[in-house]
From TrEMBL:
Cofactor(s) needed by this chain: pyridoxal 5'-phosphate
Pfam families according to UniProt: Aminotran_1_2
Record-annotated Aminotransferase class I/classII large domain positions: 34-367
Family statement: Belongs to the class-I pyridoxal-phosphate-dependent aminotransferase family.
UniProt source species: Microlunatus parietis
UniProt keyword annotations, A-Z: Aminotransferase, Transferase
Name under which the protein is recorded: Aminotransferase
PANTHER family: AMINO ACID AMINOTRANSFERASE, L-GLUTAMINE--4-(METHYLSULFANYL)-2-OXOBUTANOATE AMINOTRANSFERASE
Length: 367
């Protein structure tokens, strides 16, 4: 291994979920068993229309297109225009990705960023934003108030609304301010909108909407996933849309790297992007679980902050988050500690709604 490769590996943090082994064992020892609310992995069925589309495309012996089929790119563009007001978005300005985590992790590298470049991430954020910066040799800079960064000219600015982990939904004017700040400095803006279908107390907006982007998608990438929207985490199905020149550049690199979504999965994506009924059904499931779990947590002494959207509750007992993890584990409940998501989140825990109705009810009763 070269010194450069060795230093890049050494810069990466330990995989955070490994630190939950002790809490998991304690929670699993509960007489009624473990209720795992730590990872936001779907438990509800894959929609039947997706399973059918996958099966019908199963006889796909040839290599698929990295760009996605013309039909898929048109379906992505149609969805982003119809649902997220991405006026004027062309099919050629979209691209499927192998689940959005790989795209988040490799975006700085795909953009050609490296040593000496900075990547701005939210202060309480999905850790893969910073990991992607470190993989490329960049410096991640946690910041929510971009004006405080002065003359910094980052190569990439990550936005996330609704937020993972906090569930915060940025108002349109705030989102527009952040886009304008990044554009003035020549940065690419990547907006993680994977939880957009789950707005409870406010309506999420996309950076591709005219009120946010001023009618131009230059320097913008909206990042979407079917993992949560359509319970498709096991298929690894995500997509991006935005600046057509930028998408073309990224596609050229991804072709060399073999970053290809399997053809049957592409067909399932086409079917799901055209259907809103299954999304409404899933929204209703999460909303009902939220209505059960939130008041139970509040009665148990938790304070819920943000959580206007997404499929998590962002909670605190005004103590170190790891102490809260132990409290929950004693009740047979496993959650994610806030320190996974940045120093600013150390006194919080993230509690997922991705459990069966029975498990959510059990957690509420135990509390």
């Amino acid at each position: 291994m070269t010194d450069t490769a060795r230093s890049g590996v050494a810069a990466l943090p330990d995989f955070p979920w490994d630190s939950l082994d002790g809490a998991r064992k304690l929670a699993a020892a509960h007489p009624e068993g473990l209720v795992d609310l730590s990872v936001g992995t779907p438990v509800d069925p894959v929609p039947a229309i997706a399973q059918q589309a996958l099966a019908e495309a199963a006889n796909s012996p040839g290599y698929p297109l990295t760009s996605g089929t013309a039909e898929l790119r048109a379906a992505i563009a149609d969805y982003l225009v119809r649902r997220w007001a991405a006026v004027g978005l062309a099919a050629e300005a979209t691209m499927p990705v192998i689940g959005t985590k790989e795209f988040v992790a490799w975006l700085p590298t795909l953009l050609g960023l490296g040593a000496g470049d900075t990547v701005v991430v939210p202060t309480m954020a999905y850790p893969t934003y910073a990991v992607g910066a470190l993989i490329a040799g960049c410096t991640p800079v946690p910041c929510d108030d971009l004006e405080t960064l002065g003359d910094l000219r980052p190569g990439l600015v990550w936005l996330n609304s609704p937020s993972n982990p906090t569930g915060q939904i940025l108002a349109g004017d705030e989102l527009a301010r952040r886009v304008a700040w990044a554009r003035e400095r020549g940065a690419v803006v990547a907006s993680d909108e994977c939880y957009g279908e789950f707005g409870w107390e406010a309506d999420p907006v996309s950076v591709l909407a005219p009120d946010i982007c001023g009618g131009s998608h230059d320097q913008l990438l909206a990042v979407h996933s079917l993992s949560k929207r359509s319970n498709l985490a096991g298929y690894r199905a995500g997509f991006i849309g935005g600046d057509q020149d930028l998408v073309t550049r990224l596609l050229a690199v991804r072709k060399h790297a073999g970053m290809i979504v399997p053809r049957p999965v592409q067909q399932a994506m086409i079917t799901l992007l055209a259907d809103d009924d299954h999304v409404r059904e899933q929204r209703d499931r999460y909303l009902a679980r939220r209505a059960t779990l939130r008041p139970a947590l509040e009665r148990a002494g938790f304070r819920i902050e943000h959580s206007e959207g997404s499929i998590y509750l962002w909670a605190t007992r005004d103590e170190p988050g790891r102490a809260t993890i132990d409290f929950l584990a004693e009740h047979g409940i496993l959650a994610a500690p806030g320190d996974f998501y940045g120093e600013a989140a150390e006194r919080y825990v993230r509690i997922a709604l991705t459990a069966t109705d029975a498990h959510i009810a059990s957690a509420a009763t135990r509390l």
